[in-house]
Structure of Facilitated glucose transporter:
Amino acid sequence: MSGLLRWADRATLAVLVLDAVLLAVLELFFLPSYLGSVQFPVTVAVAVVTNPVLVALAARFSTGGLAAAAPLVAWFATVFVLGTLGPGGDMLLPAEDWRSYLLIGGGTLPAAAMLGIVRGRRSYPG
């Protein structure tokens, strides 16, 4: 039974990493959204909410502390690679656009804070 649970936990962790990659792709594609004539990067709010949730869920299904960081690492790698080396040579994450910095900060900082929280809980049980 223990082997089955371990396999199910690994499969769940893989699904969470896949979710992080898919969310990064969608957030990049919809980053230049407008609400009327105003720039409105709603995908930053999606990243701020979903990335910490993915990290917290990954911590539940992993025994090692570093496995909890897998969704965050996958999200950041996808944003970096796809954002700078986009499809057809297009740059989806231009350096001169404030929305690029907002997406990177909004996606990584709350998730990194959540990673610290879940790793801290494992260090100090009680």
Notes: The chain has one domain: 2-123. The CA atoms of residues 95 and 101 lie 8 Å apart. The chain is about 70% helix and 5% strand.
